[in-house]
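Case study 2.
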Amino acid sequence: MDKTKVKVNFEIWGDDFNVDNVSKILDIYPSEIRKKGDKSTYSNVKIKKTSWSFGTNYQESLDINEQLRFITNIFNDKRQELQEIKKSYNVDYQISIVIKIENNQSPAIYLESDIIRFADEIQAEFDVDLYVMS
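Prediction:
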């Protein structure tokens, strides 16, 4: 029987910025990089913004905060660096939560206060995608 899975990504988006410098500043190497002007892997459309992304793989979970805590624990001590990157490169931050619901088992979807504080301090937005699998 398939179980509900959750994946969380911390994403940096900008018009065009040096992803290698961002990796060096954070001392974290991304799970995925997309560069402005490259072709999308999903279609022939050109990518409109550069992105740097670090995230979990899909994990069986009935509480999104398990994956959110993993990501925020990695970036929590890097708030100063993230604020500097935001100013230097004029980028935006997004915490992306992707949920694949299996067998009508919806996970708990709420944000703990420390996660909200972290997102507020670095001016990050949240994006939630739900996929109900049949």
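The longest strand covers residues 5-14.
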